[in-house]
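Fold it.
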Amino acid sequence: MENEIPWLNSVSPEQFIQNTKKFNDLMMMYRCTVREVRTKLEVLDDEFSATYKRNPISSIKSRIKSPVSIYNKLQKLGYEFNEENIRTQLHDVAGIRVICSFINDIYSIADLLAAQDDITVVEIRDYIKNPKPNGYRSYHMIVDIPVFFSSGKTMMRAEIQIRTIGMDFWASLEHQLRYKQGIENLENYDEISSELLECAQTVINTDNHMQRIKDMIGTFSDI
C-alpha cells in the first residue's frame, strides 16, 4: 500500500520519527491556537448575551488541516513539506468558522476581534461585498495571535471565516455538489453552475431581507 504522502517513502525510520514528532508538536500548537480564538469568540458572545439579550454568534466550528491537505497545498504552492513552510506559507492550518445570525453581526464580530490588542490582522478578504464568481460569500480574516506554552509566548496564525447561517448553508451544499460529485465532467455543468449561482443570490437576498426586518423591529441594539 502506497503512502498518502510521497516523501515518506524516501526517509529513514529515524528521520520519519523525528519529522513525525515535529509535525505532531506543530499540530498541537495549532490546536491550542484554535482554542485561543474560540475562547475570545465565546467571551464576546457571552458579553453580548448579557448586554443585548441576544447571541449574535449562532455557532462556532473549527478544524485543523489534515497532513495530506497540508502536503498537497504546499506542493501546489511549490514548497517542500516541512515545519518552516507550514508555518510561513500556509495561513489556514488552523481554521475557525463563525456562524452569525445577521449580516451586521459579521462586521461587528470582525471589528471587535481586530480591536483586541493582542490580535494582529494580517489580511482581510470580504467575499460578502465582493463575492466569488461562483456566488460564495463569507468574511475571511487571517490573524496572528499569541499562544502561551511552557517555553514562552509564540505567535500563531489562524484563518477566521465569518458568515451568516444562510451563507454557511449554501457553501456547505455547494461544496458537496461541486466537489464531491465531479460535476465538472457533466455536459450540463454550466447550467448547474448557473443554478448554484442563482441559489447564492436567493440566500443573500434573504439575508438582506432578514436584516431589514431586524432593523424595522428595532429591539436589537447594533453592537
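The longest helix spans residues 13-52.
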